[in-house]
Amino acid sequence: RGHPARIAGRPRKGTYQKEGTMKAAVVHDFTQPLSIENVPKPEPSDGQVLVRIEACGLCHTDIHAAHGDWPIKPPLPLIPGHEGVGIVEALGSGAGEEISEGDRVAIPWLGFACGHCRYCNSGRETLCEAQLNTGYSMDGGYAEYVAAYARHVVKVPDAVDSLDAAPLSCAGVTVYKAVKSSGVGPSQLCAVFGVGGLGHLAVQYAKIQGATVVAVDLEDDKLEMARELGADYVVNAAEQDPAAEIQKLGGADAAIALAVSPRPFEQAFDSLARGGTLMMVALPPDNYVKLPIFETVLRGINIKGSIVGTHRDVEDVFKLHTLGRTRVLHETRPLEEVNEAFDDILHARNKEPRIVLTV
User: Would you call 13 helix, strand, or coil by DSSP?
Assistant: First the structure.
C-alpha cells in the first residue's frame, strides 16, 4: 500500500547489498519444500539493524507460513523464522541509540508496529493494525543475516544462551503473556491443555505465578515431562475425560488452550470453575469451536484471546530465565535440515518440545 515500513521491511524488494550473498531457506511455492540457496545479503534500511543469526527456533507458525495455510498468505519468495537470535553487525540510519553493534538480540514475531496508534500508545503494540510480522510479511531468521527494526529487537542478557533465547522469544513469551493475562494466582488451579513446545513452558510460568497446575495431553511421555517441570496433576485425555477430572479438583480458575484442535478448547471450557477464564492461544486449522452461551453467562466464564507478547514481555521472559526459573527443552538441527525438521514436527517425531535451527 505504499507504507514505508512495508517497503523497508521486505529487503527482497530492493534493499539488498549489490555484493555478497548469504545462505537461506526460502519458500518459493507453498506446495514445495523450502530451498536452501544463496541469496543477496540484506542491508539495513532506515530504522533497521543487520543481525548475523546464530540460531532460530522452529515454530509451528513457520510451517503454516511455508505451506500458505492461513487466510492471509505471506508474499513469496519468503524466508521464514521469527525466533531468530544473533549479533548486530550494522546499523541503518535512524536506528536510534538503544541498540549498538555487537549487541546480541532476539528478533520476535512483531517485526514492526507503527508506534503511534491507540494500541501502540497503550502498550498493546501486538494489536497494531499496521504491524509487520517477522518471517511472514517480512523475511525472517532462516538465514545467515536478517534486517530487523531496531525498535522491536530485544537485547538478550549474557546469562541466556542463544539456543534458549530463540524459543523464549516466541513460545516463551506467548504462554507467559497468556498465563499472566489469565489472572491466575497463588492457591488457584491452572489447567494447561497441550504440553508441547508451548505447554512445557506454560506449566513453568503458571508455577511461577504460584498456581497449582494440572497438565493435559494425549501422550504419557509429555505428561511425565510436565510432572518433572512442576505440574501437580496430569490427565491423559486419551484415557480420561479431562474436564471431569479437573472438576473433581474443584474446577480450573484458568485454562490455557494450546492444543491445535477444537476439541481441547471445548474440554478446557468445560473444565473451568465458576468465574474461570479460558485463554485461547493455539490456532487450529479448523477455526471454530462450539461453546454454550447459557453456561458461559450463568457461570460467569471469561473467554480471552492472547497473541504473543510485547517488547516488555520478552524482557520479562529473559529475566525469569536469567533467574533460573525456567528451562527450555530443545534439540538443535542445522538449517540445511529444515525440511526434515518440519516433517518431524508434523508427525510428532521430534525428541524435545522445541527444535532450534543453527546457522
Answer: helix
Q: If residue 312 lies in a helix (H) or strand (E), which one and from where to where? A: helix 311-322
Q: Which residues have a Cβ under 8 Å from the Cβ of 17 and sit 6 or more positions away?
A: 40, 41, 42, 43
- Are 272 and 301 a contacting pair, CB within 8 Å? yes
- Pick from 202, 276, 291, 279: nearest CA to 246: 276
For residue 281, which of 180, 138, 207, 352 has the smallest C-alpha distance? 180
Average pLDDT, the chain: 93
| Distance from C-alpha of 235 to C-alpha of 219, rounded to nearest angstrom | 10
Tell me how far CA of residue 321 lies from CA of 86, 106, 231, 247, 306, in angstroms.
Answer: 18, 14, 18, 32, 21
Name the amino acid, one letter, at 14.
G
**Residue 268 near residue 257 (C-beta atoms within 8 A):** yes
44: Cα within 13 Å, side-chain hemisphere:
23
Task: Report the distance separating Cα 14 and Cα 11, nearest Å.
Answer: 6
Contact (Cβ atoms closer than 8 angstroms) between residue 160 and residue 300: no
Span 153-191, pLDDT tens digits: 999 999 999 999 999 999 999 999 999 999 999 999 999
Q: Before 4, cis peptide (omega within 30)?
A: no
pTM above 0.70, yes or no: yes
Catalogue the E-assigned strands of the chain. Answer: 16-26, 35-42, 48-58, 84-91, 104-107, 110-112, 132-133, 145-149, 154-155, 189-193, 212-217, 233-236, 252-257, 272-280, 302-305, 330-334, 354-358
Kindly give, in sequence order, each residue whose CB lies less than 8 Å from that of residue 42, ignoring residues fewer than 6 positions away. Answer: 11, 15, 16, 17, 22, 50, 139, 145, 146, 147
Q: Residue-wise over 111-147: b if at least 16 C-beta within 10 A, else e?
A: bbbbeebebbeeeebbebebbbbbbbbbbbbbbbbbb
217 CB neighbour count, 10 Å cutoff: 26
